[in-house]
Amino acid sequence: MLGIHHTGCSQKLRKGLVHPLRMNEITSNQISDFRSKTTLGLALTSVLLLTPFSIYQFIIQGNLVIGAMSLSIVGIFAFNAWNCKRGQYNSTLTFLVLVPVIIFFLAYAFQEVGYISMFWCYPAVLSFYFMLPERQAWIANTLFMLIVMPQAWQVLESQHSIRLLVSLLMVIIFSGLFVRVITNQQQKLEGLALNDPLTGLLNRTSLHETLEHVISQSERLGLPATIILLDLDHFKTINDTLGHDVGDAVLRDVGKYLKDRIRHSDKVFRLGGEEFLVVLYDTDYLVGLEVAEELRRGISSLSTLADTNITTSIGLDTLLHNEDWNEWMKRCDDNLYQTKLAGRNKVIS
């Protein structure tokens, strides 16, 4: 809801918020896609390398239990690979099914085949970090150490058990730190790709996707949607007379004002230069017009420039039935152009 008060009618019209695609959802989806790709590679590699081992246990060694468990791991990895290819990978399923199977397999293997099993511990603890979110990976590795290490302690000599314990802890900690750094870097890069570095607002990168989402939602749910296009008046004069540092301060203040004055469910973009776009979900023409006027008055009241009011020209338009986003944007841009012809510091819709 806007920080400025609406009339009772306007407040009623702007209730009942839906859940549009938000910035944190975009980041989450990107991280999920990263994990899905690493899981796919890990799954394919595991299927390729573990299948001959499973067959060897069945046919050559005659160890049916080890062979069956390793084949079940291969099967789960194959299922993960299939889901990843379909874009439907579910890390929770891996956490609840694959992790217990791997832990039980290695605990049993220490009892059956002895010290050789310790070589399988390292890829196991590494794989958890590549397939699971960080918190689930830590839980999986904690369970692994609590269940598998006592079995290893019974089989190995104490000095070898201590070395296995220390080396596994180092692999777990180093891998966890490495994955955290990679994830943080990915989030920062995505933020740089999607956000304007000066104002922190969204940039053009996700504009097309956002408008397509708004149109799809409007068609599916029958909800109105409105966009507001703002262009700061005579901004070049501010840069030329007061300097670019002052101009940047104006842009930052306007961006902060727009972000603070709209609902969290709406979107604000800096399209470039002194031009901004506000996307209002579930907002019809009348409420959109009221919001645009409030934003115009609010920007003119900013105190960034001591002796000069910052004014803005605004074009506004509400989505029409069966309209694509290019047509919608063009109509709004035409209204902004008419605002400038009419003397600026106005709203035309």
Question: How does this model look, in words?
Answer:
67% of the residues lie in helices and 9% in strands. The chain has helices at 8-13, 23-59, 64-85, 91-113, 118-131, 134-155, 158-194, 207-221, 235-242, 244-261, 285-300, 325-341, and strands at 225-232, 267-272, 275-281, 312-318, 347-348. Helix 12 links the parallel strand 4 (312-318) and strand 5.
Short description:
With 349 residues, this protein is of the alpha+beta class. The chain has helices at 8-13, 23-59, 64-85, 91-113, 118-131, 134-155, 158-194, 207-221, 235-242, 244-261, 285-300, 325-341, and strands at 225-232, 267-272, 275-281, 312-318, 347-348.
State the separation between the terminal residues, measured CA to CA: 22 Å
Low-confidence stretches: 1-28
Rg measurement, Å: 29 Å
Beta-strand content bin? 5-15%
Largest sheet: 5 strands, mixed
Q: Can you give the mean pLDDT?
A: 83
Number of helices: 12
Spatially, the strands of the biggest sheet line up as: 2-3-1-4-5
The tally of beta strands, per DSSP, is: 5
What general form does the structure show? elongated
Helical content class: 55-70%
Name the structural class.
alpha+beta
Order of helices and strands: HHHHHHHHEHHEEHEHE
How would the blueprint of this fold be written?
Elements: H1 8-13, H2 23-59, H3 64-85, H4 91-113, H5 118-131, H6 134-155, H7 158-194, H8 207-221, E1 225-232, H9 235-242, H10 244-261, E2 267-272, E3 275-281, H11 285-300, E4 312-318, H12 325-341, E5 347-348
Parallel strand pairs: 4-5
Antiparallel strand pairs: 1-3, 1-4, 2-3
Helix pairs in contact: 2-3, 3-4, 4-5, 4-6, 5-6, 5-7, 6-7, 9-10
